[in-house]
Amino acid sequence: MARLYRGHNLLDQFRCMVRYKALDRCFRDPNKTYTKEELIEACNKALKEADPKAKTVGLRTIHYDIEFMRSERGWKIPLIKYNREYKYSDLSFSIDGLQKRLVNEIEIQELRLAVNTLCKFKILPGFEWTGELVSKVNESLVKNRTSNIPQIEEI
After folding, report:
1. Contact by Cβ (8 Å): 152, 141
2. Lower CB count within 10 Å: N or C terminus of the chain?
3. Using the 8-state DSSP alphabet, how is residue 34 labeled?
4. Structural element, H or E, at residue 18
5. pLDDT tens, 20-55?
């Protein structure tokens, strides 16, 4: 499996996930179908709430987000389009339950590598906080090792 998010750094990945969750909420809405313009508005609102410094997104970004969510690399969402409006064909579908399952072994190894790098910083002045972060990540890795699907809890 390729990377879960299209972003290149943690902030980009966070913003992608904010947009994906906003799109997911719109697609699950039983009372409304959304045009791309309305989806852009919903994503920009969610981004501003999550990160006031985030730039607004446009049509191309939303188009790529939807394509990613539909793909094998994403969640293979059951999206239908009619009259230029979008909705899930199965309103009980949600990416929320699938997110944890999409963490794969390569990503677990990348996380372990990042934790090892953080360990080197915890002895430097001003980086004492990294010790607590490293402990939480390691705790989550150990706790979730027993399940069939590697998972990482939100920290």
Report:
1. yes
2. C
3. B
4. helix 10-28
5. 999 999 999 999 999 999 999 999 999 999 999 999
For residue 134, the surrounding DSSP H or E stretch is helix 129-144
Helices (H), 71-128: 96-99, 105-121
Domains of the chain by residue range: 10-93, 103-144
If one looks up domain 10-93 in CATH, what number appears? 1.10.10
Signed CA dihedral, 105, 51, 155, 29: sign only: negative
- As a whole number of angstroms, the distance between CA 65 and CA 105 comes to 24
The pTM score is: 0.64
Residue corresponding to tokens 């590598």? 113
- The predicted-structure confidence for 84-127, as pLDDT tens digits, reads as follows 999 999 999 999 876 555 566 667 777 888 888 888 888 888 88
